[in-house]
Amino acid sequence: MTYNQVHPKSHAVEIIDRGATLSKLNDALEIDFAKTAVVQIDMHVRQIDKDWSSFPQNVAERILPNAAAFLDAGRELGLPVIHVMVYQRLVERGMQPRTAIVQSTGRHGTPYGQAPRPGYHPDAPEGYFEWDVMPILGPKPGDYIINTKRQMTSSFLSTDVEHLIRCLGVDTFFVVGINTNNCVSNFSFDAYNRMWTPIIVTDAVGSTHGKDLHEFALQNYPRTIGLAMSSAEAVERLSAAKAAAADTAMAGI
């Protein structure tokens, strides 16, 4: 029997409208500007560019300008910008059991087919890393780079991002990147589990696993444990938080 015979799709799933509640949650959020950072997850050339990746280009054309504008707004406001990027050694590639299973079937891990080129340089020497953040995003002077993300979906497990975060003294993160349903969500869940406040920037994230899983993630995360808002709302809230911090400082409070 096929998967769909065992798990029949008898009807389309209706998304419950919780928009009013999510808006109320966003309104109740109090941002401590001095403890806030912007985090970019996995927006690599190797993960997005059409010459490397099967990432849907109509999605890339929509979210990349939004992410770039948001990162620039964060820099202009004076927020730390952190890029977290996956890079594996050759010996580390394909170690996840599911990867071998997918390869054995001849199928693809995404609905968009086989990537044009391998995502990693097989002859790269130890310690090698090409700075391949999508050029529209940076990195720019003052940005922080985490380039030891070995475990594919966790930004914390094999990196020093937590050490950097604690050194910066931040606990609130506006998150852009890919893929909404795994790496972006995993960062956000991991941060939440550390008693921090991650906010997904909804128009600056996307997925190579299908629009359905992207939309699922944008419903699942803010409706269960987190927060999510558009880049326009985020910039407005951050600008107001910076102004409030400045007023407090002037008042000597």
Features:
253 residues, alpha/beta, Rossmann fold, six-stranded parallel beta sheet, 9 helices, 6 strands
Short description:
It is built from nine helices and six strands. The radius of gyration is 19 Å and the shape is globular.
What does this structure look like?
This protein is an alpha/beta fold. The protein has a single domain, classed as Isochorismatase-like (Rossmann fold). It is 41% helix and 15% strand. The protein has 9 helices and 6 strands, in the order ααβααβαβαβαβαβα. The protein has helices at residues 3-6, 19-28, 45-48, 57-77, 97-105, 161-168, 180-193, 211-224, 231-250, and strands at 36-41, 81-86, 144-149, 172-178, 197-206, 227-229. The chain has a 6-stranded parallel β-sheet. Helix 4 (57-77) packs parallel to helix 9 (231-250) and helix 7 packs parallel to helix 8. The radius of gyration is 19 Å and the shape is globular.
Radius of gyration: 19 Å
Mass-distribution shape = globular
User: Which strand order spans the largest sheet, edge to edge or round the barrel?
Assistant: 3-2-1-4-5-6
Derived from helix and strand composition plus strand pairing, the structural class reads alpha/beta
Count of the domains: 1
Biggest β-sheet, characterized? 6 strands, parallel
CATH class: Alpha Beta
The assigned CATH architecture is 3-Layer(aba) Sandwich
Mean pLDDT: 88
CATH T-level fold name: Rossmann fold
**Element order, helices and strands?**
HHEHHEHEHEHEHEH
Number of helices: 9
